[in-house]
């Protein structure tokens, strides 16, 4: 519908999972293109005064000069980091974006250099926007939630200006910072508050008794480093917990590297917290130009989509079918009598279960018969579930994610002849390819399902 590719050539569009793209790019980096947080000891719980030493400054400058070069896409060999990896080494990529944090776990396979996904991609709403929401809650506490709601509705442009001003200060926040952070309040905010409340913002700030936030005569909120740190803590704590929960799983033991990527990974606050939590267990690495990691990795994935050889299915996938009704096994409410035969309706027949390993190109086939003789069309509904024990398509959490409709041409066969439909699902790619074929006529229809959807 977006016109990215023509309907005749849908295979020209590839879908890449963001943390997977980051993983593909990170494995090609050289050591001078990485910041190794684990090499920097914490000083009294704070990051060192110079978070990037002279060698990293030189590397940054070198990377800046070659930023427009495309050599990172066409290098035949792996980077120096690759030389440190052995077959079986495992690493985590934490994609810390604006809205969510997504984690993926890969294992290196040598000598071909392909990747195997060890645990299904997981994530949560722990992105940088959580810090913005914490700032909005602080404003609500100081000036009143009703006023902030009214101001956002009546002065949307000024609200955007305020959020932009906070974004700039948020990026400047660092654990070792000692000076206050000034956030400009738009004049329309100050004026609107005076008209709405009948008092100035300085009075509201004093009455709120908010610690570490003062008013500046230049029309700014002066936030101490402690106040800014409090805004970060809820979001960062959730990210640390999410990574820690993943590390506790049996299939994710022996992690060697933890890559931080995505826009939020640029934050020194997040870097310091991850370093403190996991630096002793594995090497915590941040690529230079971390915000472009996913974009570059997506290009590499497009050049070689077979680089990830084994994935984990994020959901259970199957079809809805009619099975012969078995008394005592199937519930009575699922009984359907047609043509003198008893059927159990709404049966969820799984092709693959959640978190099951699926190799690239792996195919699962099933054979079905039309429900009644002379049927001119068969419709195969495809369902998915986050559970591995769903029995019926009406069970909680089961939803339809696709449909394949196959026209059945009339055959010159006896009316009682058995007719078979072969349903095929091909897994392991970023999309599931579904095929239904009429065995009698070889007529085939195809469909694709987003393998990455939840």
TrEMBL record:
Coiled coil: none annotated. It comes from Eolophus roseicapilla. InterPro entries: ATPase_NBD. Signal peptide: none annotated. This is HS12B protein. It comes from the Eukaryota.
